Amino acid sequence: MLNNGQPLYSQIEDELRFKIESGEWDVGRRIPTEKELGQTYGVSRITVRRALSSLVEAGYLERLRAKGTFVKSTNDNASKSSFTIVKSYTNEMLELGRKPVTMWAQVEKVPADESVRRHLHVEIGTPVLHLLRLRGADNEVITLADTVTPFRDGYSLKEETYMGSLYEYLSNFGIHVSDQSEYVEAIEADSKLMQLLRLSNPEPLLKRVRKISDKASGYVEYSVNYYVGSRYRYYVAF
Fold first, then answer.
1. pTM
2. Is the pLDDT of residue 217 over 80?
3. How many CB atoms lie within 10 A of CB 238?
4. What is the pLDDT confidence band of residue 66, given thresholds at 50, 70 and 90?
């Protein structure tokens, strides 16, 4: 997965926020101590403390003296979470009357590292499919999609296989994704993302982090998507 030079405390903040927004950590739950989190992520307590402080300020966590740090019950958390019907990028563009296109795709079978282990809940070294794709519409670059999922026998390692809809391809394996949790945030494009997204100048991006699954088949996927802010709008139906 790309980290794009993102500071360690910010990476940890993202991962802990996702645990809260996805419901993995329920409201009222006491989270691990700074020491325990430091051991889990292999960082100092100072780094963990900075990540936790940001989440406290954002209303996700609260510190109770002599008791610990807990997931906070606030309306803010509910508004920041988005549990939606799973929709592929291809269908999303078609519904907007645009012609989806994949500029390029990179696919590889790799052993799960520590980051992938945490996201997919697999053992380190487990074979996973890593898919990186640059996607657009009407020949305009819109998003960079970085996806990992446990590898299954039969998965293609040919780039041309993934130039269309991933979920249409997965349906050939009896996989029909139905559950999704995600969060979105605005970030500034760094030099690496600018190059990948073919941007001449820095501009805001929409970072969309999703965890998608299919209980029937046991499929699970974790993806980080970077959308060019001036070319994409995020719609939520209630």
1. 0.70
2. yes
3. 2
4. confident
Amino acid at position 109, single letter: K
The span from the CA of 148 to the CA of 107, in Å, is 10
- With b for 16 or more beta-carbon neighbours within 10 A and e for fewer, the 34-46 pattern comes to beebbeebebeee
- Secondary element (H or E) of residue 134: strand 127-137
Q: Assess contact for 222 and 180: CB atoms under 8 A.
A: no
Is residue 237 pLDDT above 70, yes or no? no
Cα-flanking dihedrals φ and ψ of residue 114, to 5°?
A: -65, -40
Please name the amino acid found at residue 142: I
Helix (H, G, I), strand (E, B) or coil at 106: strand
Maximum pairwise Cα distance, the chain: 57
Of the candidates 180, 175, 118, the one whose C-alpha atom is nearest the C-alpha of residue 152 is 175
Structure-token pair, residue 23: 């419901």
Look up residue 65 and give its amino acid.
R
- In sequence order, what are the beta bridge partners of 121? none
Report CA 71 to chain centroid distance, whole Å.
Answer: 21
234, 206 in Cβ contact below 8 A?
yes
